[in-house]
Amino acid sequence: MKKYNFNIVVTQDEDAMYIADVPDLPGCHTQAKTLVQLYRRVNEAIALYLEVEKAKKQPVIQHKFVTVKQVEVII
Question: How many CA atoms lie within 13 A of 5 on its CB side?
């Protein structure tokens, strides 16, 4: 068994749904009404993603986290 660590980006949409994206795993994302549900679902989504990649014998690339910055742009 191999242990993986992934960064996730959590945002909230206009309907108050939480959305989790996994930048290292293209297309891997999920949503939920609560953060508790979201974290459970994103763990499931990552596990499924890794199972598919393992079956395809594809390497999983993990990037080193550097920073997150929110910028304000006025136009």
Answer: 3
Domain boundaries, the chain: 1-75
Class of domain 1-75: alpha beta
Distance CA 52, CA 57 (A): 9
Q: What is the pTM of this model?
A: 0.86
Please, which residues have CB within 8 angstroms of residue 22's CB and are 6 or more apart in sequence? 6, 7, 8, 9, 28, 29, 42, 45, 46, 49
**Predicted confidence pLDDT, tens digits, the chain (75 residues):** 788 999 999 999 999 999 999 999 999 999 999 999 999 999 999 999 999 999 999 988 888 989 988 899 999
